[in-house]
Specification:
With 385 residues, the protein is an alpha/beta fold. It contains 14 helices and 18 strands. A hairpin with a 4-residue loop joins strand 9 and strand 10. Helix 2 crosses helix 11, helix 4 crosses helix 14 and helix 8 packs antiparallel against helix 9.
Length: 385
């Protein structure tokens, strides 16, 4: 039986453990956190990501957790509406083979599918990595040693596996900060079954109100020194950057004051690597190709990467280097495309001027026109082939 050590118990790590275990691998998942973590922001599964979720057998569990489509209201700083984007626009643009869920719900579905198939080591890190042509030896912080056929670094944008094996300097830090967190209850100023979104020069704030335990907040803004913002912490940083806004933002920040540990709060970075594997060590997900939240395909790419890695390993059997090379050549063009789209998407989430905000509003208004929806849908379908 082939053995794999997987570093990271997020979407990338769990989906890889699930796919390999389905193919008969013995898997060990190593996670530095003492227990499972989850974040409340919304992720979209469409195109290859939806297909991967289907092949992994996740759709029944995710269907019970999916959020569906909802109306979005673009608002001014004081909360007054500019215009409304009906849910039918998203439905017409995205088609039926798409699903929106909270990240935490996707991780839960993955964990429940794989927990009886793999061994989990929470509160554990990798102390050292040594490999030869036949195996990779991983010494863990709990003093144990794992001899494996493959080590998979799925430990995110700040990957320690990447640094240990490939070196530093492969993460490109961008001048933005992002925050996302769940809301236990809807906040004032946001209509039921809808989202309000404020887009202004250099910043975006969005509040999704889909009912108790189904609501969330998302913030991003441009800043000269993301590191100093992170040191301030999410409450102080968001209060300073968004304290003048209405439309549910004040209530969302007050909620965060009571539950600061619930927030995903980080600088925005991409990972750009010439190669995702070295011998019997491979990186997957944000550790290898982080596209940023601006791209909107991080979860889908993680699922796709895990599913395609399993397919390549099955096809090449004992020739792991050949499998990794084949897998990367097939997936890299999609990751590169999404990274490029994310760089352009920064203008949407953090427009540099009021003129850019106005032009974005015109574009969104145009998309709501019935004759334009079909063009948008065909464009999205071509992008996801």
């Amino acid at each position: 039986m082939k053995r794999a050590v997987i570093v990271g118990a997020g979407i990338a790590g769990l989906s890889t453990a699930l796919r390999l275990s389905q193919d008969g691998w013995r898997t060990v998942v190593v996670e530095r956190a003492p227990a499972r973590r989850s974040s409340g922001y919304l992720v979209n599964l469409l195109g290859p990501g939806y297909d991967a979720a289907e092949r992994l057998g996740l759709l029944p569990a995710l269907s019970a957790r999916q959020l569906g489509l909802f109306t979005t209201v673009l608002v001014r700083a004081d909360g007054r509406p500019k215009f409304t984007v009906p849910s039918a626009v998203a439905e017409a643009a995205l088609g039926k083979r798409t699903m929106s869920v909270f990240r935490g719900d996707l991780e839960t579905a993955l964990y429940e599918a794989v927990r009886d198939r793999t061994e989990f080591r929470f509160g554990t890190t990798v102390a050292s990595i040594d490999q030869d042509a036949d195996r990779v030896r991983v010494v863990l912080s709990d003093g144990t040693t794992e001899d494996a056929d493959l080590l998979i670094g799925a430990d995110g944008v700040h990957s320690a596996t990447r640094t240990a094996v490939f070196g530093a300097g492969l993460r490109v830090d961008l001048p933005y900060v992002v925050a996302a967190f769940p809301l236990a209850h809807p906040v004032a100023g946001v209509p039921d079954s809808s989202a309000t979104t404020f887009i202004g020069p250099g910043r975006t704030a969005a509040i999704v109100n889909l009912g108790p335990q189904r609501s969330s907040a998302f913030f991003t803004y441009r800043c000269a020194d993301p590191g100093s913002e992170l040191r301030r912490g999410p409450v102080a940083a968001l209060s300073a950057a968004f304290g003048d806004l209405g439309a549910g933002v004040p209530d969302a920040v007050r909620h965060l004051e009571k539950h600061p540990a619930d927030a995903y709060f980080d600088a925005v970075s991409q990972v750009v690597m010439p190669r995702w594997s070295a011998g019997r060590v491979v990186l997957l997900g944000d550790a290898a190709w982080c596209v940023t939240l601006f791209a909107g395909h991080g979860a889908a790419l993680a699922l796709t990467g895990a599913d395609q890695l399993g397919a390549a390993l099955r096809q090449h059997d004992d020739d792991i280097p050949a499998a990794l090379s084949d897998w990367e050549s097939g997936l890299r063009p999609e990751a590169v495309k999404r990274q490029a789209l994310a760089r352009r998407g920064m203008l949407q989430y953090a427009p540099p001027s009021r003129l850019h905000v106005w032009m974005s509003d015109l574009t969104i208004r145009a998309i709501t026109l019935p004759g334009v929806r079909g063009l948008v849908r065909r464009g999205i379908e071509r992008a996801n082939r």
